[in-house]
Design a protein that fits this description.
This protein has 98 residues and is mostly helical. It has a domain of 63 residues. The chain is 27% helix and 4% strand. The protein is built from two helices and two strands; from the N terminus they run E-E-H-H. The chain has a two-stranded antiparallel sheet with strand order 1-2. Strand 1 and strand 2 form a beta hairpin. The radius of gyration is 18 Å and the shape is flat. The two termini are 27 Å apart.
Length: 98
């Protein structure tokens, strides 16, 4: 969590290794340690940034997001921007977008 009770939490970030992200990726692909911005971290960051862009469509509207359900329970109008529909033939087997 970055905010607790509406206040910015004091967070200390780990030092970045003296290595660029391309080399980190290659090392991880060869079985080394995870990259600094692995999918577990970067996926959540991408979701947060996307939600910020979505929120700009609804100025002055308080939005409460349910991350587990990927919905805005109190503002269904915003839900249409959370997920898209695949065109016929481009769907991903096993991935349900409901």
């Amino acid at each position: 969590q970055v905010f607790v009770d509406g206040k910015l939490k004091d967070v200390t970030l780990p030092d970045m290794p003296e290595q660029n992200h391309w080399h980190q990726w290659v090392d991880a692909a060869l079985g080394g340690s995870q990259t600094q911005s692995n999918f577990g971290f970067a996926g959540r960051m991408c979701e947060i940034l996307s939600l910020g862009a979505l929120a700009s469509r609804f100025p002055n509207q308080k939005l409460a997001y349910d991350a587990r359900k990927m919905t805005f329970p109190d503002f269904p109008e915003a839900n249409q921007y959370v997920r898209g529909a695949y065109r016929s033939g481009w769907d991903v087997p096993g991935l349900e977008l409901s």
